[in-house]
Specification:
Blueprint lengths: L2 H26 L6 H6 L4 E2 L8 H6 L5 H11 L5 E4 L6 H8 L3 E5 L3 H15 L10 E4 L15 E6 L6 H11 L5 H4 L20 H18 E11 L2 E3 L4 E4 L1 H11 L3 E9 L21 E8 L3
Parallel strand pairs: 1-9, 2-3, 2-5, 3-4, 5-6
Antiparallel strand pairs: 6-10, 7-8, 9-10
Helix pairs in contact: 4-5, 5-6, 9-10
Length: about 300
C-alpha cells in the first residue's frame, strides 16, 4: 500500500465521521437541520430569494416567491409538519410545501385565485406522485372561518402575506390619476390591481379596521398553532403622503397586534428587493423620502 492509499483512507474516515455527526445533529434538531445548515440559514437580510414569475404568478400580481416559502419551511418546520396560509392567493405556500414534503392547508376568499391554486398544485407534482400520503387543501373561504377547518394545536408553521388594507386601491387610483406618465406607472414591473370588490376582502378595509380584523385572524391562528410553533407574515410598510402621513409602520403595528392576542414577537427578517426595483424620484425638490424597496417578515412564536 502506498502513501496516497493511506491518505485516501484517512480522509474517507474523516468524511464518514463528519457525515455521522451531521446525521445525529439532524435527528436532534426540531427542524431536521445540521448545525452547519442551521448557521447558513440564519442571516436576517435576504436578497437572493426573488425569481422570475410563471403564468400562475403573473395572473395574481402580488405573490411571494416559492424560494422564500422554502427557506422559511427549512428554518421553522420539519418534513411531514402541518403548514397553514390564511391568505393563500394562488398557492405559493402550498407549492413550497409540496416541494419539501410538508402538509399544507390554505384559505383564499377569491374563487378565481382558489381555482388557480388548485390547478398549480396539480400541475406542480401531479396526482398520485405523493408517496408520503401528504395532504394539500385549498379552501375557498374567508380566513376568519379558519377554525371551521382546523382543530386547536395542529399547525406547526404559518406562512402568509395579507393584503395591505385599502392601500392597493389608493395605489391604483394614484397610478390612474397622478402618475399617468411618470416612472411610477412604468417601472418596477409591478401590476397593481385590486383583489376583488368583496366586502370581506381585507384589501378593501381602511387601515384601522384592517388591523382590527387582522387581530381576529392572528388570534384564531394562535389557537390552531402547536405550542412552540411559528407564524411568519410577509408585509410592507407604507406612506400616505396625500394625507400627510409620511410613514405607516405596518410591520410594527402587526407585531403589536400579534402580541396583544398572545403571540411572542420572535424575529424580524428583511427581504431586500432593491435589485428588482428601479429607484423612483419621490418628494423632489422639497421633501426627501427613501424608496421602500424591502419587505419585512414578522416572525411570531407560540410559547411552550
Ligand atoms: C398578498 S395576496 C397573497 C398571495 C400569496 N402569498 C401567493 O403567493 O399567492 C393576499 C390574498 O388574500 C386574499 N384575501 C383577501 N381577503 C381575504 C379573506 N378575508 N380571507 C381569505 N383570503 C383573503 C386576496 O384575495 C389575495 O389573494
Amino acid at each position: 500500500m502506498d502513501y496516497s492509499d493511506t491518505v485516501t483512507k484517512k480522509s474517507r474516515a474523516i468524511h464518514e465521521d463528519d457525515e455521522e455527526k451531521e446525521f445525529h445533529q439532524r435527528m436532534k434538531s426540531f427542524n431536521g437541520l445540521s448545525a452547519k445548515e442551521w448557521a447558513s440559514l440564519s442571516m436576517n437580510i435576504w436578497s437572493d430569494v426573488s425569481s422570475p414569475r410563471n403564468d400562475f404568478q403573473k395572473e395574481h400580481g402580488a405573490v411571494y416567491p416559492v424560494k422564500l416559502v422554502e427557506r422559511l419551511l427549512l428554518m421553522y418546520s420539519r418534513e411531514l409538519d402541518n403548514v397553514f396560509d390564511p391568505f393563500l392567493g394562488i398557492g405559493s405556500t402550498i407549492i413550497g410545501c409540496q416541494n419539501l414534503n410538508r402538509n399544507c392547508i390554505g384559505t383564499e376568499l377569491n374563487p378565481e385565485f382558489a381555482q388557480l391554486a388548485q390547478q398549480w398544485l396539480v400541475e406542480n407534482s401531479g396526482i398520485f406522485q405523493n408517496t408520503l400520503n401528504l395532504k394539500y387543501l385549498v379552501v375557498n373561504d374567508d380566513c376568519r372561518n379558519l377554525d371551521k377547518y382546523i382543530a386547536k394545536n395542529k399547525i406547526s408553521l404559518t406562512i402568509t402575506s395579507p393584503p395591505y388594507a385599502d392601500f392597493i386601491q389608493k395605489s391604483v387610483e394614484d397610478r390612474e390619476k397622478v402618475h399617468k406618465t411618470s416612472l411610477i406607472k412604468h417601472s418596477n414591473n409591478s401590476t397593481v390591481k385590486q383583489y376583488s370588490d368583496n366586502e370581506d376582502d381585507f384589501g378593501n378595509l381602511p387601515y384601522p379596521e384592517f388591523i382590527k380584523q387582522l387581530k381576529v385572524v392572528l388570534s384564531k391562528n394562535y389557537e390552531i398553532t402547536k405550542p412552540g410553533g411559528y407564524s411568519c407574515w410577509v408585509v410592507k410598510d407604507h406612506r400616505d403622503t396625500k394625507n400627510k402621513i409620511p410613514y405607516i409602520p405596518f410591520h410594527s403595528d402587526l407585531a403589536r397586534a400579534g402580541e396583544e392576542v398572545g403571540w411572542k414577537f420572535h424575529d424580524l427578517i428583511i427581504w431586500d428587493q432593491s435589485k428588482q426595483r428601479k429607484l423612483i424620484l419621490l418628494g423632489y425638490p422639497s421633501i426627501f423620502y427613501t424608496n421602500q424597496n424591502c419587505s419585512f417578515i414578522v416572525v411570531f412564536r407560540k410559547f411552550i
